[in-house]
User: What shape does this take?
Amino acid sequence: MAEEVTLSGHIQHHLTNAKMCTTDNGLAFNKACSDSGFWTWHIDTLAWSIGLGVLFLWIFRRAANKATTGVPDKFQCFIEMVIDFVGDNVAKTFQGKSTLIAPLALTIFVWVFLMNLMDLIPVDFLPAFAGFVGENVFGMDSHDVYMKIVPTTDINLTAALAVGVFLLMIAYSIRIKGIGGFVKELTLHPFSTKNKLAMVFLIPCNLLLETIALFAKPFSLALRLFGNLYAGELIFILIGAVGLMQLPLHFVWAVFHILVITLQAFVFMMLTIVYLSMASSDNH
Amino acid sequence: MNLNATLIGELVAFIVFVWFCMRFVWPPLNNAIEARQKIIVDGLAASDRAEKDLELAQEKATAQLKEAKAQAAEIIDVAKKRETRIVEEAAVKAEAEKVRILAAGHTEIETERNRVKEELRKQVAILAIAGAEKILERSIDAAAHSDILDKLVAEL
Assistant: This one.
């Protein structure tokens, strides 16, 4: 066994992803990847998020296959309630028509919700199980086995979602307004004047402000979700480290977190719709 | 928690999930919901229509019943009137017949009486002549005194 487990070490262990990278000696894992730079893969984040995404699509695809226009069974009712909820929000928020927005919003809402939901699994269960398997099956040091099961506490995942939304925002802006319209939007607002000379000085200011405003959107999306879930997870870990007192504390925090995880999924979805609606509306 | 290649992997996963959802999940579910909504809307409209039809039919039935009752009453009325008229006509006819029969009887009686009177008159004349002949014996020439006799007969 390894060295004495300190509290900070325990927390650090919980907050470290399982890494994978390629080195000169082939595939390497965890500590061997500490200086592999950008080309490191968080295999726990990838596995859990893709697993949950596939779970989401499998459940909804099953409902879609069984969907009838007759009397729906309760499973179909539940799925249709989710569809209706998302569709309703999209219809109320998104100006204009698009076949992409609603499925996008549904994917974000359910996928993010499922990933957030992993937060409610007691923090030590799966990492301890992974450590046990790692030690007994693969002969690893259990402290060298990392397992972070909430993908949304990994900035890479939230940033990936935000980048996806950001690319769509750019695409929608250009598709609706054209490249010229998009450039105009970035340069001629918020300050504008009829005086051509003054405009020359105002354009850089506008460009700076609008660019910051544009990039603030994906940054806020990524950091809001990451921050909320990371903080929640950290508190779960801290609660898990205080002995028997953790039982009532954990209960209260978990109940509160049911709200947080749903709300964060909803907020991410709504902001995505709002941003895309703003990107595709012409009037600034 | 530095950004690394995981971001690329997650971005690809995200795009694939959204594509799959857009292609295979959202349209069938949404179509099913919308189709069912349409069925429900149609059903409600149909039931509304049926209710209105029923109301209309009931109104019509009531009106027809009323009309039928009125017709029946009218028919009975007409029949009664006709009955009265027939009875009156019969009474009038009977009265006329009575009057006619009475008149005929009277006429017959009158005729008979006149005939009998004439006969009697003739007989009285004969009797008177015979009486007078008996009284006067041959003194009276029947032919010479026939004008007197005729006058006498007329006076009877």
Notes: The two ends of chain A are 63 Å apart (CA to CA).
